[in-house]
Write a structure and sequence with these properties.
The chain is of the alpha+beta class. The protein folds into two domains: 3-97, Phosphorylase Kinase, domain 1, CATH 3.30.200; 102-275, Transferase(Phosphotransferase), domain 1. It is built from eight helices and ten strands. A hairpin with a 5-residue loop joins strand 8 (146-148) and strand 9 (154-156). Helix 3 runs antiparallel to helix 4 (194-210) and helix 3 (114-132) packs antiparallel against helix 8. The longest helix has 19 residues, at 114-132.
């Protein structure tokens, strides 16, 4: 099915008006539209031809189910079920709330002030708490999966690579994630835990403060994996001495090599931020 025909079928299946394509890349096509007069985002996952089609279909359904289960202002809300196009299906689509603002990736071109990083940590901790409370690990907490709204709130998106700890993972235990934003548990043979998301959040905070990765993702993949597992990260104040002691303590703990030495999940990080007066 060509793209133009697919978009028409999606528009009809989801009851969309004023459809405007936003992005097309990776495994998704993203549209801006209105649904019942309300701005919304539609996502389409075309299914590949061959044995991987069923896996991609199940992963898309799982993403929608996870979003529907989470109750948080800091996780994007899904507005419809996953709808399959054609029989047998050639694509699956759904509608999410429209979030104004921009992806976090567009806000990392210069170093942040402490207060901005505190807000990121607080909002992301609330989002992770909502996921971890359902025994779900996001596994891809990277700048493209966090949105900063015009009001300054950070919202977590795209749990398509998430893993439910109590269920068999569709993608297995190992998930490569996004280079630069991986935890030690992302290497082959690693086991994702909520503290893996905490490590990824620590990378975001560290990068925002220093404009450098705590573990450089460039070069040989095997060497990168080795350094993730074996090397303790340089404390953030050694690179950015202006960072406050409280903030440095939180960021450095998020980035401990051993998961048991980090905040164990979003809830523990929230408690720490609350004690520091940084989580409302």
């Amino acid at each position: 099915m060509d793209i133009a025909t697919l978009l028409l079928e999606v528009e009809s299946a989801l009851g969309l008006d004023n459809v405007v394509p936003l992005t097309q890349g990776g495994q998704k096509i993203v549209l801006k539209a209105t649904m019942s007069g309300t701005p919304a985002i539609a996502k389409i996952v075309p299914l590949p031809i061959g044995p991987n089609a069923e896996l991609v279909l199940k992963r898309a359904h799982r993403e929608v189910e996870l979003l529907a289960a989470v109750e948080s202002d800091y996780v994007v809300k899904v507005l419809t079920d996953a709808v399959e196009i054609e029989d047998p299906p050639v694509a699956v689509c759904w509608v999410e709330e429209y979030l104004d603002g921009e992806d976090l990736a567009l806000h990392l071109s210069s170093a942040w002030q402490d207060d901005d990083v505190w807000r990121l940590l607080s909002d992301a901790a609330k989002a992770l708490d909502a996921c971890h409370g359902l025994e779900v690990v996001h596994r891809d907490l990277s700048p493209g999966n966090l949105r900063r709204t015009s009001g300054g709130r950070y919202v977590l998106m795209d749990p398509g690579l998430a893993r439910h700890l109590a269920k068999t993972a569709l993608t297995g235990s190992f998930q490569p994630g996004t280079p630069g934003w991986r935890s030690p548990e992302h290497i082959p043979g690693g086991e994702p835990v909520p503290a893996s998301d905490i490590f990824a959040l620590g990378i975001l905070a560290y990068y925002a403060l220093t404009r450098t990765f705590p573990v450089d993702p460039n070069g040989d993949q095997a060497d990168y994996d080795r350094r993730l597992v074996e090397c303790q990260i340089v404390p953030v104040q050694q690179i950015a001495p202006h960072v406050s002691d409280d903030l440095a303590g939180v960021v450095d703990r998020c980035l401990q090599r051993q998961s048991s030495r980090r905040f164990i999940d979003g809830a523990e990080l929230m408690r720490e931020l609350t004690q520091l007066g940084r989580c409302n």
